[in-house]
Design a protein that fits this description.
The protein has helices at residues 2-35, 37-45, 60-76, 78-89, 95-132, 145-162, 165-174, 180-185, 187-201, 206-235, and strands at residues 53-54, 143-144. By secondary structure, it is mainly α. A two-stranded parallel ribbon has the order 1-2. The longest helix is centred in the middle third of the chain and has 38 residues, at 95-132.
Length: 236
């Protein structure tokens, strides 16, 4: 019992050390990003240069810079965060489990980056241009920097998460929880669910919903293909 307690205390001490490294690394990178926050803000503003933004409360612009700096800091510190988490969990894993986790993480990261980049380069400029067409001389445009960033970041994050669908499908297929044949049979229902999810996850407009739903349908087809390959490998 004593050895068990000591082992538990050792794990807690190790966890605390790793968490401390992660917090310090994220704080440092956030401060670095704050120094270059003008450049980071410009990246989001140049998607639609015709849009004039305002800030409605004294701290709103500062909070917008702080939000961008925090997100940038988290992204910049991600390698250190991942390394610390991996250092903590890897000793308790078998070799095949390590390979599978590393493969899943790399795949998930690539799909998340692809989804985020797709949203930034294709979806957001199209959406913003579409909304600008509704501008009228009688109605003054007063879009705050805070609401603009919330909208842009939510769309980017949503597409990044949604593009994880093939990785999730591979994981479930590997655990023998889903089969490609089942997904194919349930495809019409799943497409309906996709449109419902798109309506919930995006801002309340039809353009955002369609632009999220269509990639999700393509990702569903890719997920079915991945499940089919994994199922076939397991049967063999």
């Amino acid at each position: 019992m004593k050895n068990k307690n000591l082992t538990m205390l050792g794990h807690l001490a190790e966890l605390r050390k790793r968490m401390l490294y992660i917090v310090v690394a994220n704080l440092i990178t956030t401060f670095i990003c704050y120094e270059y926050s003008n450049i980071l803000i410009e990246i989001f503003l140049k998607m639609n240069k015709s849009m004039k933004l305002v800030y409605l409360t004294p701290p709103e612009l500062f909070l917008a810079y702080l939000k961008i700096s925090l997100i940038g800091g988290i992204i910049l510190a991600l390698p250190i965060t991942i390394l610390q988490i991996w250092t903590f969990i890897s000793p308790g894993l078998y070799r095949n489990e390590r390979l599978y986790i590393v493969g899943s993480f790399i795949g998930g990261l690539l799909f998340f980056i692809t989804g985020s980049y797709f949203a930034y380069k294709m979806v957001l400029p199209t959406m913003l241009e579409f909304f600008q067409k509704f501008q009228r001389d009688e109605i003054a445009q007063m879009i705050s920097i805070g609401s603009y960033l919330d909208f842009v970041l939510s769309v980017i994050f949503t597409f990044g998460v949604v593009f994880e669908m093939p990785v999730l499908a591979a994981l479930l297929a590997k655990l023998k929880l889903i089969k490609a044949t089942t997904l194919k049979k349930k495809q019409p229902i799943m497409i309906l669910i996709i449109f419902i999810v798109a309506a919930v996850m995006t801002p309340p407009d039809i353009i955002s919903q369609i632009m999220l739903a269509l990639p999700m349908i393509l990702l569903l087809q890719l997920s079915i293909g991945i499940c089919w390959l994994i199922n076939k490998y397991q049967e063999e």
